[in-house]
Amino acid sequence: MEMKLKNKITKCLFPAAGYGTRFLPVTKAIPKEMLPVLTKPLLQYGVEEAIKAGCGTMAIVTGRGKRAIEDHFDRSYELENQIDGTSKEILMQGIRDIVANYTFSYTRQVEMKGLGHAILTGQILIGDEPFAVILADDLCDNVHNDTVLTQMTKLYEKYPDKCIVAIEEIPEEDTNKYGVIAGTLLEENLYSVTNMLEKPEPQDAPSNLAIIGRYILTPEIFDVIKDTKPGKGGEIQITDALLTLAKQGKVLAYKFDGVRFDCGSIDGFVKATNYFYEKVSNE
Ligand code: G1P
Hints:
Blueprint: E1 11-15, E2 36-37, E3 40-41, H1 42-52, E4 57-62, H2 67-72, H3 77-83, H4 93-101, E5 103-108, H5 115-121, H6 123-126, E6 131-134, E7 138-141, H7 148-158, E8 163-169, E9 179-187, E10 190-198, E11 209-217, H8 220-226, H9 238-246, E12 251-255, E13 259-262, H10 266-281
Parallel strand pairs: 1-4, 1-6, 4-5, 8-12
Antiparallel strand pairs: 2-3, 6-11, 7-13, 8-11, 9-10, 10-12
Helix pairs in contact: 5-8, 5-9
The structure holds 1-O-phosphono-alpha-D-glucopyranose.
Residues 115, 135, 138, 178-179, 198, 210-213, 237, 239, 264 line the site of 1-O-phosphono-alpha-D-glucopyranose (G1P).
């Protein structure tokens, strides 16, 4: 019997259990997803992108020491009571609207066993339907109308049996920081993936097209992850699980329109801060 895939993406999974060691000591007691770019935490940018793409449910895979995330996406009666009717009220408007209109669900990843494992941990929140994944440290901004995730969900409606990864061209010497793909061009900016490797050294990289933290995944991925052996760094890699599906012609790579900052690095974080500061200053 052929299964009909639901081709509307309504849930977005956010892996958010990592320690953020590159930002120590600030990440000792503050989740790295809560670090602010101007006045908004990184994760809120991701959530806003998911909302714009049509997602109503945010499925967040957290871990120990991440309670500030749940508090951020919740009411804060005392604070709201204090500022209601004052000039500060406007500063809370965005987050209040998010909390009032969208669903947040959480599960904890008890052991850090890689991104593939984090995504599998989120299965309980996603169920049997296609979903989006946003890695909040890859902070994206659109330069035209659609956000990066919206571009991808639109593409998914056209290719509802495929997984889609976002890619961008990187300098050749940086391939060992990313999942890297090889593929055949299907249409403008869209590749059918033939190979993908997690963090290959430049001499082993199949191209300079790197995966960035936006994925559309079909629920088939969960069983594939369960069968995926630990790879790079002894971790269960989503790249390796996707390679299994790529070999069956089921993975697309999309060169997105927009900008992206690697906020997992201090350099990228500072660049993002400057970029958004410029942007709001010009508004
Ligand atoms: C993860 C993925 C990698 C991808 C990257 C994008 O790596 O494993 O394939 O290119 O995110 O940011 P991480 O940055 O978590 O080490």
